[in-house]
């Protein structure tokens, strides 16, 4: 597609449930990033993929968070046993080269009730 | 750990004014610095990218400067318009890293 597509755009889930957030990057972009934007906070880096491998997972806040990328394309961010503090906007970005040319998706707004 | 600060947190100006947004970062070992804008409920749009070896970049009414040694960048917006209303985010890529470190943004309102 022409841009980075994220789904769903909004997700309301009950505390304790698992959720999956999807990111479809721009075709040909080898680098993919997940960020989290909490209310009143800056964007927080979660994980970086180069192709299908994740050389930097340092931003994942706990072992409840995991992500994978298949075929060098679509990525899924999974949050297990969601907590209220997981409520945030989760943004995905892809780029054609490390460090430059980022294109961001519109994000998934996650609300844990 | 790199920390990026943006001042002011919010700014309101009448249409037509020139304005400056400030960004500071604690670790000068950066690969590049980027300015983004974020509209409510939307993703981020890249505005300007300054490589660590550059001093400034210009695009239309926008001019961004970088003083790496002092850990500062400014975004200058000339002849502001209501359509410029958005949150402006500054972000740096650390040398040896791949991810962006973001500031908390400046929310700009341009009053018609």
List the helices and strands and how they pair.
The complex is a heterodimer of chains A (113) and B (112).
Chain A: E1 5-7, E2 10-13, E3 19-24, E4 31-37, E5 43-50, E6 53-56, E7 65-69, E8 75-79, E9 88-95, E10 103-104, E11 108-112
Chain B: E1 4-7, E2 10-14, E3 19-25, E4 30-38, E5 44-51, E6 56-59, E7 62-67, E8 72-77, E9 86-94, E10 100-102, E11 106-111
Parallel strand pairs in B: 2-11
Antiparallel strand pairs in B: 1-3, 3-8, 4-5, 4-9, 6-7, 7-8, 9-10, 9-11
Write up what this structure looks like.
- Chain A is mainly β and about 110 residues long.
- Chain A has strands at about 5, 10-15, 20-25, 30-35, 45-50, 55, 65-70, 75-80, 90-95, 105, 110.
- In chain A, the strands form two sheets. In chain A, strands 2, 4, 5, 6, 9, 10 and 11 form a seven-stranded mixed sheet that branches. In chain A, strands 1-3-8-7 form a four-stranded antiparallel sheet, with no helix packed on it.
- In chain A, strand 5 (about 45-50) and strand 6 (about 55) form a beta hairpin.
- Chain B is mainly beta.
- Helices cover about 0% and strands about 60% of the residues of chain B.
- Chain B has strands at about 5, 10-15, 20-25, 30-40, 45-50, 55-60, 60-65, 70-75, 85-95, 100, 105-110.
- In chain B, the strands form two sheets. In chain B, strands 2, 4, 5, 9, 10 and 11 form a six-stranded mixed sheet that branches. A five-stranded antiparallel sheet of chain B has the order 1-3-8-7-6, with no helix packed on it.
- The interface of A and B includes residues 42, 50, 59, 105 and 106 of A.
